[in-house]
Write a structure and sequence with these properties.
With 266 residues, the chain is of the alpha+beta class. Among the domains are: 55 residues; 113 residues, Histidine kinase-like ATPase, C-terminal domain (Heat Shock Protein 90, 2-Layer Sandwich), CATH 3.30.565.10. It is 69% helix and 13% strand. The protein contains 6 helices and 5 strands; from the N terminus they run ααααβαββαββ. Helix 1 runs antiparallel to helix 2, helix 3 packs across helix 4 and helix 4 runs parallel beside helix 5. It is elongated, with a radius of gyration of 34 Å.
């Protein structure tokens, strides 16, 4: 009888142990599942936050670009309508003065009139490059051609442009403006800092993208040691808006080059 009671007691202890193990396994499983679900939820919230921040940054950049474009458009119109008209009037007055002055001063007045005429042409060309409406009408290639001509007329640098492949009309016309502004920023930096004599631009229309390469023969720099100003940041941010691959390279005494790969087929 005592042996029987011991057997029953052993069975009860074994059943209790099994029960406790099962409970422990179930509890552990629930804890693990809870942790996994919690971690997934946490990761999802983090992803959502990052995505919201990315969208916010993108909208902020777009808003900034729109404000800049409106400002540039306004400046372009003012140059064309107001400054341009004043230069036209001044040119006409100088030509009238050249017909009345004596031979001794006539050449000087004619030279002044020619300088005013050249200034008028420069102002008109500059107003076209600033006004996005003009870029819309001309298209990307023609706008770049006009900018290259304008830079050559300044006499500060010798520029060349090469266009390869079959021209493609962009699905989004605003992309043309953003691309052109990137090039304008590079041109501006070259004139201000590079001390370059030559600037070469290549537009290569490929099957699914437009490859743009710009290079100067200026003094160059170590990009890692250069503080990123608004110009360089603007170029990179604009390229991001287009999903374009952006690469800027430079070496001391070896010039600076810009490479852009714009996917016109989304």
């Amino acid at each position: 009888m005592q042996e029987r009671d011991q057997i029953i007691s052993t069975d009860a202890e074994r059943d209790l142990l099994i029960y406790m193990i099962i409970v422990l396994i179930v509890v552990s499983t629930l804890v693990i599942l809870f942790f996994i679900v919690f971690q997934k939820r946490k990761n999802q919230l983090l992803k959502d936050k990052i995505e919201q921040q990315r969208k916010f940054d993108e909208e902020l950049i777009k808003t900034q670009q729109e404000i800049q474009e409106e400002t540039l458009k306004h400046v372009g119109r003012e140059l064309h309508d107001n400054v341009g008209q004043l230069l036209v009037l001044a040119t006409m007055q100088m030509k009238a003065a050249a017909r009345t002055v004596k031979d001794e001063a006539k050449s000087k007045v004619e030279n002044a009139a020619m300088a005013l005429k050249e200034s008028l042409e420069e102002v008109r060309a500059l107003s076209k490059s600033l006004n996005s409406d003009v870029i819309f009408n001309l298209g990307f290639d023609e706008t770049v051609k006009n900018e290259i001509k304008r830079l050559n007329k300044t006499g500060l640098i010798e520029c060349s442009l090469s266009i390869n492949g079959e021209k493609v009309d962009f699905e989004n016309k605003k992309d043309e403006i953003i691309l052109f502004r990137i090039l304008q920023e590079f041109f501006s930096n070259t004139l201000k800092y590079a001390e370059a004599e030559h600037l070469n631009v290549t537009l290569d229309y490929q099957n699914a993208c437009l490859a743009i390469n710009v290079e100067d023969d200026g003094i160059g720099c170590e990009l890692d040691n250069v503080e990123k100003g608004s110009g360089l940041i603007n170029m990179e941010k604009r390229a991001e808006l287009l999903n374009a691959k952006f690469k800027l390279t430079s070496q001391p005494e070896m010039g600076t080059s810009l490479s852009l790969m714009y996917p016109f087929k989304k």
